[in-house]
Every structure is written in C-alpha cells, then in structure tokens.
Amino acid sequence: MHNAIGTGKEGAFMFKQMKSDIRTVFENDPAARGLFEVVFTYSGLHALWAHRVAHALFKRRWYTLARIISQISRFMTGIEIHPGARIGQRLFIDHGMGVVIGETCEIGDDVVIYQGVTLGGTGKEKGKRHPTIGNNVVIGSGAKVLGSFAIGDNCNIGSNAVVLRPVPPNSTVVGNPGKVVKQNGERVRDRLDHTNLPDPIVDTLRSMQKEIDQLRAELEETRRELKKSAPEVMLSSINKE
Ligand SMILES: CC(C)(COP(=O)(O)OP(=O)(O)OC[C@H]1O[C@@H](n2cnc3c(N)ncnc32)[C@H](O)[C@@H]1OP(=O)(O)O)[C@@H](O)C(=O)NCCC(=O)NCCS
Fold it and tell me: Coiled coil: which residue ranges (predicted)?
C-alpha cells in the first residue's frame, strides 16, 4: 500500500497509480466505454483519488485538512472513506453511492465494492475497530461488514449480507447474520440446526408405529385370503378366539 504526494518521484508514482485505477475500471465494468467518460464520470475513481490525497495528509498528521478533503469527496461522490483507511491497489468501487469505509479499515488488492457497502465498527470496540479485507474480494451492494476481523482472500460477500465474524479465504458469505455457504468451491451445509434438533426417542417410536401398521395390514390381508379360500376353517379359528 503506497500513498504519496509531494516530490517529483512521488508525483510520477501517483500518475502511474491513476493509470492503473483507470485500467481497473475497464477490467471490471463492461459498461465503461471511453477514457474521457471514465475519468469524468466514475465517482468511485474520484473518491479513490481524493482518498489518496486525504490519506497522505492524514499520515502527515494534517488531520483536519484530511477530513475536509474526505468530506468534500463524500459530498461530490456519495462515498465516505475515512482518511485513515488503508487501501491497496486496484480497488474498484462500482456506483459507489452510500459506501462508508471506516478509519481503521484495511483493504487488500483487487477488491470490488458495490454501492451501499459499509466497512464499519460495531460501536463496541476501541482502537482497531473496522474490518481487514483480503485480496481479490467482492463485496456486494448493501453488504455490511462490522467489526475488527479479517475477510480472507478471494471471498465473495453477497448483497445485503451482514458479516459479524471472520471469514476464511475462498468463501462465499450471504444472509443476515452472514454465513459461509460456499468454501473452496464446495457448498457448506449447516452442521447443526439448533431450532430443529433431532429426537432419537420420537424417531424410534415413529419407526415402531410404522412397523405395527405394516404388520396389521399384512395380518388383515392374510385373514381376507383365508376367508376366501377356506371360510369354515376361518370361522372355527375366529370362534376359538
Ligand atoms: C455472493 C455472490 C458474489 C455470488 O457468489 P458465488 O460464490 O458465485 O455464490 P453462488 O452464486 O454460487 O451462490 C451460493 C448460494 O448463495 C445464495 N446467494 C447468492 N447471493 C446471495 C445473496 N446476496 N443473498 C442471499 N443468498 C445469496 C445462492 O442462491 C446460493 O444458494 P444455494 O446454494 O442454496 O443455491 C453474488 O450472488 C452477489 O451477491 N454479488 C453481488 C453483486 C452486486 O452487488 N451487484 C450489484 C450490481 S449494481
């Protein structure tokens, strides 16, 4: 993660990064048509560039100026990135409106974030209180990742998921609260459904009842057969009973 403003060398690096950011838009968004359109209309790009300036100021302890830049960027793009957030290479924020990225958040390389995503705190932690996002992670629209834990590399966070716990690498998380439904390409089933715990006694009684019903039906069938073939024998046996 690099951030730089100031010297000529740093300026050249920043320009290289901007070119890489534009390339990232073309790689991620099939709707992106031309350079002019991307540079002037992609708010995710504008927010990222503003954040680089704000973050560099933040690191130099120019906190208020950094916050002012961050807030102007928020006003213009609808994306709020705290100047303290550490963002890796090739982040793509698609649409962007309503995205909030907290101060102690760390984002790896090649991450895609859609509109309405919050990378925030639970309000109960102090110090590092925002998530750490691995490399190559997709965070769907409206998803909330709340707390100081890690999302592993190559994860997919489904739209509107609310993630409150660490997520191992190569996982897909969906729902509220977020659950891992896929890992390393395999579906993950619930290990134990606490609301539908199995009852072995009821299961045994049910299978006994089933067997009794079956035996009764068989007995009835045999009686009917006997009645047809030898009614007198049947009658005497019934009389004996
Ligand atoms: C999660 C996501 C990235 C797909 O990841 P994936 O690893 O390919 O997962 P799959 O599509 O195989 O889905 C796995 C399971 O999760 C379910 N699922 C997927 N996304 C879900 C979501 N957002 N909410 C609830 N369940 C979801 C699927 O139905 C599937 O369930 P099943 O196993 O019972 O069939 C994708 O569904 C998603 O939400 N992308 C965000 C895209 C977005 O925000 N677009 C906005 C464009 S403007």
Answer: 205-232
Domain of 198?
Answer: 191-226
The answer, yes or no, to whether any atom of ligand 1 lies below 6 A from the CB of 58, is no
Closest CA to 143 of 112, 188, 170: 112
pTM above 0.70, yes or no: yes
Domains of the chain: total:
2
Which two three-digit tokens encode residue 12? Answer: 């050249």
Whole-angstrom distance, CA of residue 126 vs CA of residue 211: 62
Whether 175 lines ligand 1, by a CB cut-off of 6 Å, is yes
The helix-helix angle for 63-77 and 43-59 (nearest 10°) equals: 170
Task: Report CA-CA distances (Å) from 48 to 55, 131, 142, 234, 235.
Answer: 10, 18, 19, 93, 95
208 and 106 in a common domain:
no
Report the CATH number at residue 16: 2.160.10.10
pLDDT along the chain (241 residues), means of 10: 60 89 96 95 97 97 98 98 98 97 98 98 93 98 98 98 97 97 90 67 91 94 85 64 60
With beta carbons less than 8 A apart as the criterion, state whether 49 and 70 touch.
no
State the number of CA atoms in the 13 A half-sphere of 105 facing the CB: 26
Q: Do residues 197 and 132 share a domain? A: no
CA of 158 to the centre of ligand 1 (A): 5
User: Residue whose CA is closest, atom 20 of ligand 1?
Assistant: 158
Q: Write the single-letter amino acid at 94.
A: D
